[in-house]
Amino acid sequence: MITVESLHHTFTIGKKGNEKKVEVLKGINFHIEQGEIVAVVGKSGSGKSTLLQIIAGFMRPDSGTIIVNNTEISKFNEKQSAAFRLNHFGFIFQNFQLLPAQTVFENIELPLKLKGVSRAIREKKVVELLKKVGLTEVADHYPNELSGGQQQRVSIARAMITNPPIILADEPTGSLDSQTELEILALIQKLNKEENLTFIIITHDEEVASIADCKLRMTDGLLVGGMTHVI
Q1: What is the pTM of this model?
Q2: Which residues of the chain have pLDDT under 50?
Q3: Which pLDDT belongs to residue 229?
């Protein structure tokens, strides 16, 4: 499903003439199978968010290979990456990133609009997903009328609306209280089993990581520990 080999990435910081290179990823190797939940665990600054950004195609690595569904994506240009993302990845963010002027229904259907899907098909798919994530009764509400847990459910539905095989989640419960966190984690597990979705979850929270089939633990740009998925 996803294979990452010898991935390196460096940031340049400081003013011109006094730049300093900081190696953020120092040769990352792992493999993920279809339908797995994988947690990338590490402290702030360990490189885990950079890894997610590169897998998603928002950034290009300095070197290394990323293969998703038998397609090498690590050398894609910006246009190719955007097209691949739309069809292969869904995204869940810590701060939800919902459009405040659009309803729950409109937020969820947005990716289908970007793909040019007809209105009838959009409506059918959104109604189905609203039911799956338990939001049917708030379809016409706006994000500021929802609880944090409800907003994250909208985000999850939006991530799923184009039927991507892979969901990339960056600290998906970081803005939620402990009880709501458990509810969102249970929903992720449910969708993983029912839809055979692959989840890659970036987290520093061991409770979040506990739902994963595999943990990839990052420290200072390296994967550490005896993880079976590291190659």
Answers
A1: 0.91
A2: 226, 228
A3: 63
Between CA 35 and CA 138 the distance in angstroms is: 30
Which pLDDT score is estimated for 221? Answer: 94
Rounded Cα–Cα distance for residues 56 and 64 (Å): 15
Question: What angle, 0 to 180 degrees and rounded to 10, lies between the N-to-C axes of helices 148-160 and 119-132?
Answer: 130
Instruction: Using DSSP, state whether 126 is helix, strand or coil.
Output: helix
Q: Which pLDDT value is given to residue 226? A: 47
Domain ranges, ordered by start, for the chain: 2-224
Q: Which structure tokens are listed for 216?
A: 């990839």
Residues 113, 93: Cα–Cα separation, whole Å: 20
Taking CA 164 as the corner, what is the angle to CA 197 and CA 28, rounded to the nearest 5 degrees? 75
pLDDT at 223: 92
2-224 CATH pick, 2.102.10.10, 2.70.98.40, 3.40.50.300, 2.40.160.20: 3.40.50.300
Instruction: Quote the CA–CA distance of 142 and 46 in Å, as a whole number.
Output: 36
Taking the C-alpha atoms of residue 43 and residue 34, their distance in angstroms, rounded to an integer, is 27
Quote the pLDDT of residue 225. Answer: 61
Considering only CA atoms, give the Rg of the chain: 18
Structure tokens at 155: 């985000």
Per DSSP, the three-state class of 188 is: helix
